[in-house]
Specification:
Elements: H1 4-10, H2 24-35, E1 46-51, H3 54-59, E2 76-82, H4 90-107, E3 111-116, H5 123-131, E4 138-146
Antiparallel strand pairs: 1-2, 2-4, 3-4
Helix pairs in contact: 2-4
This protein binds flavin mononucleotide (FMN).
The site of flavin mononucleotide has 10 residues, from strand 3.
Length: 168
């Protein structure tokens, strides 16, 4: 990747994956990047649950009515779970870690997509059951990972929402 901007351009949500499995080295690389996420007061309230069993991952497609279909083809997934008692910035910390995961995946030539779990129907119950996550943790999201089976155009710098930027 020639620059961080290029990486940001190419990270798009991918919701269809081939059945090629993700190499252990790539998962390890992504996890190292997740573990370097900044966190409020460096309290690190996150726990990452790595799923590589296709059957378990695909079962997560049923975790909610809409927006979980990408799990039906993902060949790996990382659940971002947090101990909400550890830090009041837990949701920010988990979100940053999730973005590290997605950017690292993009850099490794993989597709990724955030599947939101927190306060979405009863989705947390199924995710916890399939990933073996203890009750004291809260699941923020599952990041679906795999080799892309769809093409998404990178962001076009000419078309960014510059009206969101204000002189202050
Ligand atoms: C907090 C958050 C929750 C999201 N939840 C879902 C989801 O449950 N299902 C889904 O398909 N995509 C989900 N997405 C992906 C967004 O739909 C996607 O990032 C957005 O449409 C922009 O597209 P892009 O990722 O290709 O740039 C989520 C993204 C974020 C940041």
């Amino acid at each position: 990747m020639e620059s961080f901007e290029q990486l940001c351009r190419e990270r798009r949500s991918i919701r269809k994956f081939t059945d090629r499995s993700v190499e252990k080295e790539k998962i390890d690389y992504i996890l190292r990047c997740a573990l370097m996420s900044p966190a409020g007061k460096r309290l690190n309230p996150w726990e990452f649950y790595v799923m590589q069993d296709a059957e378990k991952i695909h079962s997560l497609a049923a975790c909610k009515t809409y927006g979980s279909g990408m799990m039906s083809t993902a060949s790996a997934a990382i659940v971002v779970a947090l101990d909400t008692q550890v830090s009041d910035t837990w949701m920010c910390d988990g979100s940053i870690a999730a973005e590290h995961i997605m950017l690292a995946a993009t850099e490794q030539g993989l597709g990724s997509c955030w599947c939101h779990v927190y306060e979405r129907e009863d989705s947390e119950r199924l995710v916890k059951e399939q990933a073996g996550i203890p009750d004291n943790l809260t699941v923020l999201c599952v990041i679906a990972l795999g080799y892309k089976d769809e093409e998404r155009k990178p962001y076009d710098p000419e078309k960014l929402l510059y009206n969101k930027v204000h002189e202050a």
